[in-house]
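Hey,

Quick one before I head out. I ran the complex with glutamine overnight. Inputs first:
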Amino acid sequence: MAGEPAPGPAPRERSERLKLGVLALQGDVREHAAALRASGAAAVPVRRPEEIDDLDGIVIPGGESTTMSKLMVDFGVYEPLRKRVNDGMPAYGSCAGMILLATEILDGRPDQVSLGALDVTVRRNAFGRQVDSFEAPVTLDGDDFHAVFIRAPWVERVGDGVEVLGRVNAGPSEGRIVAVRQRNVLATAFHPELTGDRRVHRLFVDMARRAKSTED
Ligand code: GLN
């Protein structure tokens, strides 16, 4: 009808246009891709620099941050990814991915590089090297979340503008910061891709959808 604004795309159409990458150098690539798809986005593995160009966001999985750092440089994805994420492309890092996004790393290797897009200090293997894997209750955005940690970091300092989204809420590490968000960057010390709880991936897809809709 004349005078009425044209209807915008339905939310479903918007989410179908959302193309998210999963950095596929190491880690739970398939599980992250499945969680993103279940949250309404298209998900593609990313190994080459040119695959970064048309992404609406990227997930950096867990693994070993020192190895992933070296592989990012060797595969030529470090610089383009650093540029896009610092220019505002949404990024979600889990465990080693959190380390790779942080501006400051404690107990890292001197030669490990970071994307430097999240103003936090993280400590690698913070829960103790002997603790390979454990589960702990986390309060995430005010709700309970059952979290799986694997040789995980925690956050020791958050910069201005970094929102603390999650903390361990019981046990010896109670109070430790394990989920944060700063503008376009989301990070968790734990692995939500392993538990079938899609809330973190849904949150990230939502961040990416908002970023895309403001850019359109
Ligand atoms: N300890 C690893 C590191 O420092 C992270 C472990 C993980 O991603 N599950 O990179």
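Helices lie at 11-17, 29-38, 65-74, 78-86, 96-101, 199-215.

Talk tomorrow,
K.
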